[in-house]
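To illustrate the input format used throughout this study, we show a single complete record. The first block contains the structure-token representation of the backbone; no residue identities are included at this stage. The design step must infer an amino acid for every position from geometry alone.
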């Protein structure tokens, strides 16, 4: 069992390839929810392993399009743990721009700021920081 499963706080999983953006997003999430467990991965396989090891997730930020998330079953795994997914990155934006997004997953469009991320978290979780 993962140590995070015995904790009562929120759990976030961040999967982004760009280290700088990953760390910026991690800092923003930690500012929003200081008591939260924030797990990071730079590859889909790492993120899947993290998710599979958890009992619950608040939100997973995933650098991928909706089609890739569904193909990797990330959407199913996160939903089974009570969480929500936020898509970001080139593929998510390309699907959004083409009108080909096959799901209703929120997309964090670039450029985004800490305030944009915090507003999104408030909208998804229904509580202010």
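Output of the design step:
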């Amino acid at each position: 069992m993962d140590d995070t499963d015995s904790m009562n706080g929120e759990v976030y999983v961040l999967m982004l390839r760009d280290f700088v953006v990953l760390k910026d997003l991690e800092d923003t999430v930690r500012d929003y929810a200081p008591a939260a467990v924030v797990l990071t991965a730079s590859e889909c396989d790492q993120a899947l392993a993290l998710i599979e090891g958890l009992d619950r997730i608040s939100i997973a930020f995933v650098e991928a399009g909706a089609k890739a998330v569904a193909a990797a079953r990330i959407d199913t795994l996160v939903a089974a743990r009570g969480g929500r997914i936020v898509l970001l990155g080139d593929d998510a934006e390309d699907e959004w721009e083409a009108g080909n997004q096959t799901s209703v997953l929120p997309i964090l469009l670039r450029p985004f700021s800490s305030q944009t991320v915090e507003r999104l978290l408030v909208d998804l979780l229904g509580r202010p920081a």
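Structural context for interpreting the output: DSSP finds six helices and five strands in the chain. Confidence is low (pLDDT under 50) at residues 1-7.
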